[in-house]
Amino acid sequence: MMGTSLYSPGDSVRRPLAILSALAEEQAGLVEQLQGAQCVSHAGREFWQGQLSGLPVVLALSRIGKVAAATTSVALIERFAAGAIVFTGVAGGVGPRVQVGDVVVGTGYVQHDMDASPLFPRYQIPLTGQTAFAADAALARSLVFACVVGLQGLQHAGRAPLVHQGLIASGDRFVNGLAETRSIVDALRHHGHEPLAVEMEGAAVAQVCHDYGLPFAAVRTISDRADDSAHVDFPAFVRDVASVYAQRIIRELVRALAG
Ligand code: SAH
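^ thats the input. predicted complex w/ S-adenosyl-L-homocysteine below
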C-alpha cells in the first residue's frame, strides 16, 4: 500500500460512519455501547443511529449474500447519509497462511461467481470495466491499525491472530468443500487474482461504494478454511471469537477516527 495517512472522517464532511455487520452476534455488542441510540425500520431492516466514542455512526446488519448486502448499503447511503462504510464479518480462509482465528483486511474485492464471458472478460463487472474494486486505502490502513491494537493479547488455538491484507472473493455460496474451494481459487489464480478469503457480501458492498464514490473497507475474521468442516462449530465461533474480535476492532477504529 502506498502512503501512510489514516482515514479522517472529516474527509466525508462528518456524515455518519456506517458499520455493517454480517451477523447479529457481532452487532449486539455495538448496539449496547451506542450513545443516543435510535432504531429506524427501513427496507425490512433495522438501522441503529447514534454515537460511538462521540463519532456519529449508523449500524446495520448486511444480511447474507450479495444482493441483500447491496440493498443494505444503498439504504445506508440514500436514507442514512453514510459518509463511509466499514464491514465486519467472518470468512473462509483460502490463502496458504490464513488460519482460523486470523483476520483479513480486504484491499480489493472480486466476485468469484461473476462470469458474463464471452460478452465480458471473466470476473469483470459488466459495464464498469473492472474486475476488482479497491478498498479505500486510508480507511483500510485505519482498520489494520485497529486490528493490531484491538487484538493485542488475544490468542486463538494457542497462537496470536495474524492480520493479513489482500484480496477477498465474494459469491452467493457458502464454500465448504475442498474440491469447491480449489476450483474457485484455481480459476481466480488463472486470471491473476490471489484471494486470501471467501465470503458472501464484501464485493457487493465494494461495488455499491464504488458507484457512489464512497470510502469502503472490510475486515473478516477467519472462521473456517472453506473445506469440508467449514460448517462445524460455526455458531460457537461467531459467538465466542468473531463477535469479540469485531467489537474490539470497531472500538479501536472509532476511537482513532473520533480523535
Ligand atoms: N449458519 C449461519 C449462516 C452463515 S452464512 C447462520 O445461520 O446465520 C455464512 C456467513 O459467513 C456469510 O455472511 C459469509 O460472508 C461468511 N462466511 C464464512 N465462511 C464462509 C465460507 N467458507 N464461504 C462463504 N462464506 C463464508
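The chain has six helices and ten strands.
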